């Protein structure tokens, strides 16, 4: 499902400044998925930054977002070209 030219994830879900993305990768013999997780925040100067560290308060949001990513991989993911990316916002 990865658009080879864009290098973009096949699925992204976001909430509360946290983003979980699923990437499709071509292995030697098969296609597999990997996941990236980041948190975006404004620094003291008002510049957007990202981090891979999370507070205890973030754990609930992470659990929900990772569950949605797992659901996509297990239930919705098809190894075939797609026209667009799947992006979901969780409120």
Protein traits:
91 residues; alpha+beta
Condensed summary:
By secondary structure, the chain is α+β, with helices and mostly antiparallel strands.
What does this structure look like?
The protein has 91 residues and is α+β, with helices and mostly antiparallel strands. The protein has one domain (11-89). The protein has 1 helix and 5 strands; from the N terminus they run ββββαβ. It has a 5-stranded mixed sheet with strand order 4-3-2-1-5, with helices on one face. Strand 1 and strand 2 form a beta hairpin. The longest helix is centred in the last third of the chain and has 18 residues, at 59-76.
Strand line-up across the major sheet: 4-3-2-1-5
Computed over alpha carbons, the radius of gyration is: 14 Å
Ends: how far apart? Answer: 26 Å
Question: Mean pLDDT, rounded to whole units?
Answer: 84
The biggest beta sheet reads: 5 strands, mixed
Number of domains: 1
Helical fraction equals 10-25%
Percent of residues in β-strands: 35-45%
**Total E-strand runs:** 5
- Class computed from helices, strands and strand pairing: alpha+beta
3D shape = globular
> Count the helices. How many?
1
Outline the low-pLDDT stretches: 80-84
Write the H/E string, N to C: EEEEHE
Helices and strands, with pairings:
Layout: E1 11-15, E2 18-26, E3 31-42, E4 48-51, H1 59-76, E5 86-89
Parallel strand pairs: 1-5
Antiparallel strand pairs: 1-2, 2-3, 3-4
